[in-house]
Amino acid sequence: MKSADGRFEYQDRDGEPLPDGSSLADVGRLQFECRSQKIHCSINIANAGYQIENRNWKLTGTVDAPTITPSINCADCWHGFLRDGIYLNASEQPEAKQ
After folding, report:
1. For the purposes of burial, counting CB atoms within 10 Å of the CB of 52, is it exposed (0-12), middle (13-18) or buried (19 or more)?
2. Which residue range forms the structural domain that includes residue 57?
3. Which of 33, 28, 58 is nearest to 44 (CA)?
4. Residue 73 located in a structural domain
5. What's the confidence (pLDDT) of residue 84?
6. What is the distance, to the nearest Å, from the Cα of residue 30 to the centroid of all Cα atoms in its chain?
7. Are 1 and 21 a contacting pair, CB within 8 Å?
8. DSSP 8-state code for residue 46
9. What angle (nearest 5°) sits at the alpha carbon of residue 19, between those of residues 14 and 22?
10. Is the preceding peptide bond at 94 cis, omega within 30 degrees of 0?
11. Is 33 within the bounds of a domain?
12. Counted domains in the chain
């Protein structure tokens, strides 16, 4: 399952793409483009009915406008927030679209 604009891909906990129409509660991983390196980063989501090591982020919102809490530190190349589908820098200011 992907967002309409393709910026976010939703996967199961094994990294396989979820079928369209899946619930956000089924998401085990979220893949997105890192803001500074233009590489794809993936984070483990804790709200897929399990809490195991390294699954610290919570996913809310919608497929097209996800919110992740807490902040994301993507491979030490970008640190910021994703709120309602908008990237915010560590100072919580909107990032320029790239």
Report:
1. exposed
2. 8-89
3. 28
4. yes
5. 95
6. 4
7. yes
8. S
9. 95
10. no
11. yes
12. 1
In a domain, 18, yes or no: yes
Tell me if the pTM is above 0.70: yes
Amino acid symbol at 53: E
Residue 55, in any domain of the structure? yes
Q: Which residues pair with 32 in a beta bridge?
A: 8, 41
How far is residue 31 from each of residues 3, 36, 91, measured CA to CA in Å? 11, 15, 23
Amino acid type, 34: C
Query: Binning pLDDT at 50, 70 and 90, where does residue 83 land?
Result: very high
High-pLDDT (> 70) share of the chain, %: 82
What is the mean predicted confidence (pLDDT) over 14-22? 91
Tokens of 81: 């927030």
What pLDDT, on a 0 to 100 scale, did the predictor assign at position 61?
Answer: 93
